[in-house]
Amino acid sequence: MRADYRDDRATEAGHYTGGVTSPGTALQIEAVSVTFGTVHALSALSLQARPGEITAVLGPNGAGKTTMIRCCTGLIAPDSGTISIFGAPPGSDAAAARLGVMPQSVGAWSGIRADELLRYLSRLYAHPQPVEDLIDLLGIGGFRRTPYRRLSGGQQQSVNLAAALIGRPDLVFLDEPTAGLDPHVRRHTWEIVRGLRDAGLAVVLTTHAMDEAEQLADYVWLVDRGSVVAHGTVPDLTRDASLEEVFLATTTSRVQP
Amino acid sequence: MTTASSPAIDFTPRPGAAPRSRQVLAHALTEATLLVRNGEQLLLALVIPVGILVAGRLLDGRLGLHEENIAPSVFSLAVFSTCFTSLAIATGFERRYGVLERLAATPLGRGGLLAGKALAIILIALGQLVVLAAVALALGWRPHPSAAQWLVAVLGVPLAMLTFANLALAMAGRLRAEATLGLANLVYLVGLAAGGIMWPVSAYPASVRWLVRALPTGALGEVSRAWSAGGTTWWALGVLVVWAVASALLARKVFRWMS
Predict the structure, then answer these.
(1) Is the ipTM of this complex over 0.90?
(2) What is the DSSP letter of B19?
């Protein structure tokens, strides 16, 4: 089953056994709308992510990126529209087992030690990644016994990335994975993200760093006010202008210049 | 100095959830460990109850705390503090820190999370009761329960635990973490003093006894004291069933996973 979506998308159509999802799609978001009171957090948002690709979702603060991720984990039920994770609905057992989520902020008990958190999470999965391997890979060893609340922002980011990967998922959401990281760790994280893609995962990445999106993304969705305003590969989108210029031209600012 | 190289780990997907029982146990042990390690929580769970047991022995009947009642009253206090106060405070901060949001995205899910929490408080409450019963026996407490009240206790104590846990989740799932912290401690003190936990209903003015009996704290206290003294309190089961059902409906309605 895993090997099915490793190769070229076109050749997978015959192998794909998922339900309503179109062939070779890990994540399919179809016309999803979410309203909080009078605020339209998502307005008919539609986008996709494929295995073996890094899919960047870019947008200004408040564009709906975090709401989108919460819909995909089943925390928020959309008012309308559908989401499919390898053919399964968000929040279902089938979907939860295949997902890895790196949250943008905190996401842990304040008193738990870094290695305790990872060990605990690993026990929720059938074939977890060895905790020690992830600790080595992400340089967590130096602060493995430190309570989570005393970790620096960058250290928490590393623990959260490890936590997202521990269940050997085939779809990962990385919500601003390099925000606040020093250039060493940032480059290292990029290598890991590329490694995930090369291993066949579908990687959904949100970021405000345009250089990061240019470096990593196979496909980019620009989201503004809860819907997609532009999408394409990086070369497609940057034919006439830089990605940052495209971003500024297609999305709205919450501050007046 | 090491430089970033290609990751040495095989990331090839191999998704799958662990068996449900292993997930729930992992969660329960993690929560119980964190709670035991937390000084304030340990104070509530053991230090205060043991202190009351010893103080009750020294006071010897003054303040209306009669020796034969102190041990069973303290057992009720321990159950109340763990299932309500500690659970409310812990859950309030889990919601604030995004723990619930993260775990909802794992195979544990919501049902597993609730089952894990339930198992954690059961483990802690059992541990407390073992320690407190040993201390009370050492201080000279001798229970003589009837067979009927054994049945009332075996049914009533879990119903009381369920009620307290539901109320804790309702509070923690709606209020800000700081508000939950303050209110849960306030309810602990009020329940201890005025809710029929530490003093028997017969010690209250006649006009409010019905009210104290109708509280889950009062019903639990009376079940525990009657068990120790050889009485029978079938009525308490009625009170606790109503509270368990009503509190479950409330928690279901108001609980939110995200802050």
Answers:
(1) no
(2) P
Owning domain of residue B31: 20-254
Cα separations (Å) of B134 from B45, B124, B130, B225? 15, 16, 6, 17
| Domain total in chain B | 1
Q: Which residue of B has its CA nearest to A163?
A: B102
What CATH number is given for A49-77+92-250 in this structure? Answer: 3.40.50.300
Chain A residues near residue B21 by CB distance under 8 angstroms: none
Task: Among A91, A121, A168, select the one facing B14 at the smallest CB separation.
Answer: A168
- The CB density around residue B83, as the number of other CB atoms within 10 Å, is 27
Q: Which of residues 111-140 of A touch B (CB under 8 A)?
A: 111-112, 116, 120-121, 123-127, 129, 133-134, 136-137
Residue B69 placed within a domain: yes
**How many residues are listed for chain B in this entry?**
259
Instruction: Print pLDDT tens along chain A (257 aa).
Output: 333 333 333 333 333 333 344 558 999 999 999 999 888 999 999 999 999 999 999 999 889 998 999 999 998 999 999 999 999 999 899 999 999 999 887 688 988 999 999 999 999 999 999 999 999 999 999 999 999 999 999 999 999 999 999 999 999 999 999 988 899 999 999 999 999 999 999 999 999 999 999 999 999 999 999 999 999 999 999 999 999 999 999 998 877 66
Q: State both tokens at A86.
A: 């390898």
